[in-house]
Amino acid sequence: MSYSSIFRVRILVLAVVCLVLWKSFSYFSEINNQASLGKEETTSVELQILTVKVTVYYEALCPDSRNFFIRQLLPSFERAPRLLDVVLVPYGKAKTQLLPREGTDEGILHFTCQHGPVECHANKVHACAIKYVINQDLLLKYVTCMISDNMIPDEAGEKCAVDLEIDWEPIRTCSSSVEGDLLLRKYGEETHGLRPHVSFIPTVSLDDSQDNQAAILKDLFKEICKKIEVYHPSECA
């Protein structure tokens, strides 16, 4: 065999080897990409399902509401914040009336609360805090701080705001104005629209279900874990 023939054979062999290596690399890259995509999709689904919507219908001066925040809600959130999506509805068994305003065609919103006028104002402070404190962790700490001693709502709101480095001014302004009235009316509409109707405060729904109220009020975290036990999150072990 001539030198030129040997050279051509070597070139051909090298080309075949390169082709095989390229095909192998493409094959394993595709497998790896599919595995990564599958992992991302699984993680996304798990994150979506692992979050339980916890809606709390409560009153600012209600002793049972205070106990629930201090002993159940805040500890559960701090234990596993990724498992809870908390929605607060400060209204309870209050009533809303639209009274006539003398000399105008506009009305005045008037609220009657189970624990008196102080509670109505405290509910407004909580409603305004929900609007202006965006971070859920900070909001729960703030509301729990206030509800721990809410007999003088503005004093509690300002003190807790200072302790947690929250801007008190927009909350104060909101709670003493029509803005606070409108927010509280909205929470009243949500509460009155609940089915079945509120009979005990606090009422807590998990993923919009009011089932097992006694168990939820006794051990919220346990009931949350039951909602997602199929995925066995590490926090529930």
Structure description:
There is one protein chain. The protein is an alpha+beta fold and about 240 residues long. It has two domains: about 1-50; about 50-235, Glutaredoxin. The chain is built from nine helices and five strands; from the N terminus they run αβαβββαααααβαα. The strands form two sheets. It has a three-stranded mixed sheet. α4 (about 135-150) crosses α5. It is elongated and about 105 Å long. The termini are far apart.
Helicity level: 55-70%
Strand content: 5-15%
Tertiary shape = elongated
Give the number of helices: 9
Instruction: Write the CATH architecture name of the largest domain.
Output: 3-Layer(aba) Sandwich
CATH class of the largest domain: Alpha Beta
Order of helices and strands: HEHEEEHHHHHEHH
Number of strands: 5
The main pleated sheet reads as: 3 strands, mixed
In angstroms, what separates the terminal alpha carbons? 74 Å
Give the total of domains.
2
CATH superfamily of the largest domain: Glutaredoxin
* Parts with pLDDT < 50 across at least 5 consecutive residues: 35-47
Under CATH, the topology of the largest domain can be stated as Glutaredoxin
Mean pLDDT: 86
Structural class: alpha+beta
State the strand order across the main sheet.
Answer: 2-1-5
Radius of gyration: 29 Å
